[in-house]
Design goal:
The chain is an alpha/beta fold and 490 residues long. Helix content is 39%, strand content 21%. Strands 14-17-18-13-12-20-21 form a 7-stranded mixed sheet, sandwiched between helices. Helix 2 packs antiparallel against helix 4 and helix 4 runs parallel beside helix 5. The chain is globular. The N terminus is likely disordered. The structure holds NADP nicotinamide-adenine-dinucleotide phosphate (NAP).
Length: 490
């Protein structure tokens, strides 16, 4: 990176001026915008706002590099991905500090994100070596005799990647890793609140053997940079992670290009009778409040069987009150500021609406030193926004159920379907839930927030289309080509 923003001693605004990265060069734009720390509101950088023409230049660079990238062997692509993983290991703390600074993610979670990012690139390196097609049994068809058929997975060319603020390094890795593993080139548009992590990645990638022009980061608004990527004929696939509203807009504009959409959710869990709350409640606290609840599979709705409801609420409140609220740069902090003041105001207004509908605040619901306190609500009707929409804030709803069927119906009564969980000691109940939950992933005896990076991950309904997880994303980022040999035998 031309100028390192993380250095607290830098005081001149010049030292905070960032550049974007195209063709291995650092470039400026005429227009820049201020980037503020969500926690202190200080200016932490000035970010170039690329014009449509500048985005098109980056797309041209990626387009012209696609042949060179496609020629790399699996060995070479895997080696580059291993180099990235190694550079993240060497820069672990610095990369985590950048996340904490620009996203207000508490350091313990930022370090966790970098550890996952390292794993993601390592999985990508391993999968690059396993990218194969399959042999087709041509003679299984009446007219298939004497043919030998097989498929190969070819790179698509240019991938346009659009990423959200909440995991600014690992969710970028979920696009850059598979794109390189498959032999594609990339133009990345990071979220406007978290461009520094993407620019830091560019700084690291610049030190690898990746051909210049294969990876480009363009900063600027979703409207300008995003639209230019989505509308370009040279971009063969858009891989998007973000809100359903923006994702649906992208799908409508993308024409025939491939589109993978990883969107939001209001994830739920069922807690059956007879389970051990001392183990489960700390998991629920983590699921509900990590990264201030700004996680696409954050635990938002908790359905507890009648018998355990009161004990659950009591323990949940006690454990939640132990969370340490403060600066994201302190390693002891559990909860810090939300990404934007306007997001915090929205969350507060949703709590107010729920209370007007008859909800009871068990804990939280207030702002202290600029931080929305972790909030537990109960007696919330299902049509309150905190229940039926994606809350994306440190807010969790706990509801009483009198049967597992009621819990399953409640979980499925949602426009979303990313992941769901159930804690139960009853194997039949677990099977039933795994079959009936209308989601992309079911966690038995875990919170819906559980994710490791190689597993297939993606939602149904308004939670999106397409799967991430390295093997699955690589497949999405290739075109399957069929080859059939006629052996001309009588
Ligand atoms: P967002 O507002 O939808 O933004 C996501 C990205 O889209 C940003 O880079 C944004 O740029 C860009 N964008 C905005 N308008 C655009 C347009 N018209 N065309 C193209 N791109 C555009 O989402 P967010 O607030 O950053 O992230 C939170 C959302 O992401 C939540 O809904 C969450 O559930 C979801 N999410 C899903 C997953 C998953 O894997 N399923 C993971 C994480 C997050 P600007 O920042 O410049 O506006």
């Amino acid at each position: 990176m031309e100028k390192m923003i993380i250095n607290q001693n830098l005081s001149k605004s010049d030292s905070l001026k960032m550049k974007y990265y195209v063709n291995g060069e650092w470039r400026t734009s005429e227009k820049v915008s201020e980037l503020h720390s969500p926690y202190t509101n200080e200016i932490i950088a000035y970010i170039p706002q690329a014009t449509r023409e500048e985005v098109e230049q980056a797309i041209d660079v990626a387009y012209n590099t696609r042949g060179q990238m496609a020629k790399l062997t699996a060995y070479e692509r895997a080696a580059i991905l291993e180099q990235i993983a190694q550079l993240f290991k060497e820069n672990r703390v610095k990369a985590a500090e950048i996340i904490s600074l620009e996203a207000a993610k508490p350091m313990k979670f930022s370090l966790g994100e970098i550890d996952r990012t390292i794993e993601t690139y390592k999985f990508a390196a391993e999968e690059a070596k396993r990218l194969t097609g399959e042999i087709i049994p041509m003679d299984a068809a009446k007219n298939g005799a004497n043919r030998f058929g097989y498929t190969i997975e070819e790179p698509l060319g240019v991938i346009g990647a659009i990423t959200p603020f909440n995991f600014p390094q690992n969710l970028v890795a979920h696009k850059v890793g598979p794109a390189i593993a498959a032999g594609n080139t990339i133009v990345l548009k990071p979220a406007s609140q978290t461009p520094l992590s993407a620019l830091f990645l560019a700084e690291l990638l610049d030190q690898t053997d990746l051909p210049k022009g294969a990876f480009n980061v363009v900063t600027g608004s979703g409207g300008t940079v995003g639209d230019a990527l989505v509308e370009s004929n040279k971009v063969k696939m858009i891989t998007f992670t973000g809100s359903p509203a923006v994702g649906i807009g992208i799908r409508n504009k993308a024409g025939l290009k491939k589109v993978a959409l990883e969107l939001g959710s209001n994830a739920g869990v069922i807690i059956d009778k007879g389970v051990d709350l001392t183990k489960i409640v700390p998991k629920c606290v983590t699921g509900a409040f990590s990264n201030q609840g700004q996680v696409c599979i954050s635990l938002q709705r908790t359905y507890v069987m009648d018998e355990l409801f009161d004990a659950f609420i009591e323990k949940f409140e006690t454990e939640t009150k132990k969370l340490v609220v403060g600066s994201p740069l302190e390693e002891t902090t559990d909860i810090s500021a939300m990404i934007q003041p306007k997001e915090q105001e929205r969350a507060l207004s949703w709590i107010e609406e729920a209370v007007e509908y008859g909800a009871r605040i068990v804990t939280g619901g207030t702002v202290e030193n600029g931080v929305l306190m972790p909030t537990i609500l109960t007696d919330v009707p299902s049509n309150a926004k905190v229940s039926c929409q994606e809350v994306f804030a440190p807010i969790v709803v706990v509801s009483r159920i009198s049967s597992i069927e009621e819990g399953i119906r409640a979980i499925n009564d949602s426009n979303y379907g990313l992941q769901a969980g159930i804690f139960t000691n009853n194997i039949q109940t677990a099977f039933k839930a795994s079959k009936l939950f209308e989601v992309g992933g079911v966690m038995i005896n875990d919170i819906p927030t559980y994710r490791v990076d190689q597993m297939p991950y993606g939602g149904v309904k308004e939670s999106g289309t397409g799967k991430e997880g390295l093997k699955y994303a690589i497949h999405e980022m290739t075109e399957t080509k069929l080859i059939v040999w006629n052996q001309n035998e009588e």
